[in-house]
Amino acid sequence: FPKPYPGEIFYSWIARYQRQTMVSSKSIFRDLFGCSNNPVSLSLPLNLTKFTKAISFVSQLSAEAIIKDMTLWPYLSSTITKEKQRRILKLIKYTPSGGKGPNTLVARKRIQEARYCVFCSQKDLAKYGEVFLHVEHQIPNVLICTIHNCFLKDFQLSSKTLSNNLLIALPPEVCNDDPPVFNTNALLLKVALRMVSVAQGED
Fold this sequence. Notes:
Elements: H1 10-21, H2 25-33, H3 48-54, H4 63-70, H5 73-76, H6 82-94, E1 113-116, H7 118-128, E2 144-145, E3 150-151, E4 153-156, H8 159-163, H9 186-199
Antiparallel strand pairs: 1-4, 2-3
């Protein structure tokens, strides 16, 4: 089982595993999550307690660590009550797909596309030998990479992909994209830095 990369979002980790092993998505959902449908949303997954037990022979990552470091939970939870946070965390840890998932309880626009930075992807490919989706690039309304101050590019994940038994890993070909447009708006960078700070639990 591959190790997650620093800053990688959970969806990307599982999608890379599927790409490397060529195991069917349905088998991954059944064997690792105890689910028949897709439990691996781009923002918040399901049944993480089952998942961490399933991979305990190769990884000691806890459900709590995954939620904190590999999902959008720190950002999405920043505007809801403590009681609602407890309810949603319980769903993330224990709810198999088919039940009322956490994404239905957090007010947000449905994420149908991922975002990536060409420069970050090039750096990742050189360092790790593959590319992956970063957590901070998926924060709603963050349009630029705060490291390179350039606009992020879209990687299409259709609503069908997110709701059915499909996983799509970011392909290395994105490194050959046209260079991104650099941001010249200081306020836009300031806002992005603020939202990334919240998503990293620093607020």
